[in-house]
Amino acid sequence: KPVIFSLVREQSSFMTIVIAILTFLAVVTLGLTIAITGGAIKWNQQWQNRATIQTSANPEAIDKILAENSANIKSIKKLSDSEINNLMRPWISDKKTLQKYLPNMWDVEFTSDKSMDAVSKQIGTNARVMPHTDALKNPMSTGWKIAIISVVILMIVLCAIGACVIYTAKNIATIHKREIEILNQIGATDSFVARQMQIIIAKITLRACAIGFAGAIPLILIILSVAHSARTGLMTMISIGNIGWVMLLLMPIAIILLSII
Questions:
Q1: Can you tell me whether residue 136 is helix, strand or coil?
Q2: Which helix (H) or strand (E) holds 70?
Q3: 129, β-bridge pairs
Q4: Contact between 40 and 234 (Cβ < 8 Å)
Q5: What stretches of 30-172 adopt beta strand conformation (E)?
C-alpha cells in the first residue's frame, strides 16, 4: 500500500541526523560497557586465588607448609634473587644495600579461596601472605564504576531516541492533521493511520541506525586497539567477544523496533 503521510525533506534529514548521532553514541557506549565489564571479569579470574608469600627469615618453614598443602595448590614458584632484585630496584638503587633487604618470595596459585585461607592460617606470623586481588581492588573498583556509568549513559541515550521518535510522530500528526481528519471521516481506522506513521518513522530510523552503526564500529575497534597497545593492567584485558558483537549488532535493530512500537 502507498504511504499517505511524509515529512518534508528538511525535517526528515534533521531527524535522520539526530537519531544517527544517538545510535552512534548508544553503540559506542554499549561496546565500551561490554569491553570493560568483560575485561574486569577476566582480570579478576586471572588473579583470583593467587597470592605472594613473603618472609625475611626461616624460608624452610614456609617451604614445608607449602609442601604439606600441595593438594590445595595449583602452582607455586619461588622467585629468584634476580627477579626480586628487579622488583625492588625502583625503591633501592644501591645494589649492595639492596642485597641486605632481599626477602624470600613465592608466587602461589591456590585451588580456592578456602585453600588460601587455610594455608594463610598455617603460615600465621611466619610470613606475609598478600592476595593479588587485594592489590587490584582499586583498579577493579574503577573498572566497575566506569561500566556502571556507561550503562547509565546508554539508558539516557535510549531515552533520548525514544523522545525523538515521539517528537517525529507528533510532528507528522501536526503536519497532516487535515489529512488525518479526512481519513477518519471516510472510515479509516486509527490502526491504519498509526501504521502509516510507523512506516515513515521506521524508514527514518533504519537509515539513521545504519549510519550510526557504521560510524560506531570503527571507533570501537580503534579504542580497543589503543587500549591493548597500552599494555598496562585492566587495559590489556578489555575485549569484545562473539556474544558482545552480536549484542552490538542487535542494538540498532532494537532501536528500530523501539521506534515502531
A1: coil
A2: none
A3: 53
A4: yes
A5: 50-55, 73-78, 104-110, 128-131
- State the DSSP H helix or E strand holding residue 65, giving kind and residue range, or none if neither: helix 59-68
Cα 230 to Cα 234: distance, rounded to the nearest angstrom: 10
d(CA 147, CA 44): 15
CB atoms < 10 A from the CB of 25, how many? 19
Query: Per-residue pLDDT tens for 204-225?
Result: 889 999 999 999 999 999 998 8
pLDDT band at 6 (very low <50, low <70, confident <90, very high): low
Ordered alpha helix ranges (H), 176-261: 177-185, 190-230, 242-260
Look at residues 11, 23, 10, 17 and name the one whose alpha carbon lies nearest to residue 161.
23
In whole angstroms, what is the distance from residue 41 CA to residue 33 CA? 12
Span 115-137, mean pLDDT?
A: 81
CA distance 87 to 212: 47
Phi, psi of 232 (to 5 degrees): -135, 125
Predicted TM-score (pTM) of the model is: 0.72
The amino acid present at 75, given as its one-letter code, is S
Closest of 59, 91, 23 to residue 254, by C-alpha: 23
